[in-house]
Write a structure and sequence with these properties.
Helix content is about 80%, strand content about 0%. It has about 425 residues and is mainly alpha-helical. The chain has one domain: MFS general substrate transporter like domains (Growth Hormone, Chain: A), CATH 1.20.1250.20. The longest helix is centred in the middle third of the chain and has 32 residues, at about 150-180.
Length: about 425
């Protein structure tokens, strides 16, 4: 049986999180493993993006129908987390994680031999459900070990590893398409799943000891979800995270058609442009670590969403007028991606700081909302069209909705900041 991190240490002193008691080398390995686990979902989503036009032609489908396979993946990620989160609170983190990665491996292998779009779409739902285990357990482990500002800092570092996925995934997908067809992408995802299964089995300890597990029976998860839904700040924070992800998914789902079909980029050029946008997103997550030395997560979140709304409004204007051509679309789009990079660590940090007793369930609802709202964004872009305007409309809508939710529901100026202040004092 794997060792349990928290059981090896006494309770953390005031102002410290349990994870602060871990040796530096062990913390580094933990972040690395958690980052690769959290990256499984983005890898599953992004690696086949360069192949979307090829799938459209090969399976004789419309662009909107092929985009629904992306929606299926997001739906699987959302629904899977709602099941796996409470399960991980009841039986520990490792068992649901290993089972979920196994499901992802099987689904990826079957996607490679899918004969039509209907079967491919169904398998993508199953693939997403398997990847959900990696996403929710990674977040729950962070909450097991950290809270407040330390959690926000760790999430920022985690995004550095997670951010490699959107950079590498389309590039790897484009390279695979040079020697294989779109089915080869799913064979590569099968190999990725096998590698992550081995890493999780041998390198990730159990962070939820038996005395902290939930034993409420079948009604326990329902009570936990009810309590979470009754927390205005938690609910508003996860909606902010989900709506920001919706803006990101609108870009992800529409970019291959906009950049390749409208602006004429080939598969490798698209992968490069996509990677540059991901660099901006990752860079923002790392700048966030420094920003946290001066401002709290709610303060950073407020300013990031304001800038994100401004950037997405400029994107829509340039898309409507054609001003600046390709650069006129990419520059404001990259600004929006950077602001999403600031939202991604801070909104979850606020949400997860409130429910340590059900960290898996809280992380599950966070992930479900993120991917569930994102699942709605992908077909919405396809329904409006395949041009830059359609993508820009949904990006702007997501950012405006996120900002309104923050200011009207979360109300960051009224949040208690004691936990963040304590973490700041310890950090300095």
């Amino acid at each position: 049986m794997a060792a349990t991190v928290t059981s090896k240490h006494p309770p953390a002193p005031a102002g410290l999180s349990p994870g602060d008691l871990l040796p530096a080398g062990r913390r580094f390995r933990l972040v690395l493993v958690l980052g690769f686990l959290a990256a499984l979902g983005p890898l599953t989503i992004d690696m086949y993006l360069p192949a979307l036009p090829a799938i459209t032609g090969d399976l004789g489908a419309t662009a909107a129908a092929v985009q629904l396979t992306l929606t299926g993946t997001l739906a699987g990620l959302a629904a899977g987390q709602l099941l796996i989160g409470p399960l991980s609170d009841a039986v520990g983190r490792r068992l649901p994680l290993l089972a979920g990665i196994g499901v992802h491996i099987l689904a990826s292998l079957l996607c490679a031999i899918a004969p039509n779009l209907a079967i491919l779409g169904t398998l993508r739902v199953l693939q997403g459900a398997g990847a959900a285990a990696a996403s929710v357990v990674a977040m729950a482990v962070i909450r097991d070990l950290y809270t407040g500002l330390p959690a926000a800092r760790l999430l920022s570092r985690l995004m550095l590893v997670v951010g490699v996925a959107p950079i590498l995934a389309p590039t790897v997908g484009g390279l695979v398409l040079r020697w294989s067809d779109w089915r080869g992408v799913f064979l590569v995802l099968t190999g990725v799943g096998l590698a992550l299964l081995a890493a999780a089995a041998f390198a990730l300890p159990e962070t939820l000891p038996p005395n902290r597990r939930r034993h409420g029976g079948a009604l326990g998860p329902i009570r936990d979800y009810g309590r979470l839904l009754g927390d205005r700040v938690y609910l508003g924070s996860i909606l902010v995270a989900g709506l920001a992800v919706a803006a990101l998914i609108a870009y992800v789902s529409g970019s291959s058609f906009v950049l390749q079909d409208v602006y004429g980029l080939d598969e490798q050029q698209f992968a490069l442009v996509f990677a540059l946008g991901a660099v901006g997103l990752i860079g923002a997550t790392q700048v966030n670590v420094r920003l946290l030395r001066r401002w709290s997560p709610p303060q950073i979140l407020s300013r990031a969403l304001l800038a994100g709304v401004a950037g997405s409004a400029v994107l829509l204007v340039f898309a409507l007028t054609g001003f600046g051509g390709l650069a006129g679309v990419l520059v404001p789009l990259w600004l929006v991606l950077a602001m999403v990079g600031l939202v991604m660590p801070n909104a979850p940090a606020i949400a997860l700081s409130r429910h340590s007793e059900a960290a898996g369930t809280a992380a599950a609802m966070l992930g479900a909302v993120q991917f569930g709202v994102g699942a709605l964004a992908a077909p919405l872009v396809g329904a409006i069209g395949t041009g830059a305007v359609a993508m820009a409309v949904v990006v702007l809508g997501g950012m405006v909705a996120a900002a309104l939710t923050l200011w009207l529901v979360v109300r960051p100026r009224h949040l208690p900041v004691e936990g963040f202040e304590t973490a700041v004092a310890v950090a300095h």
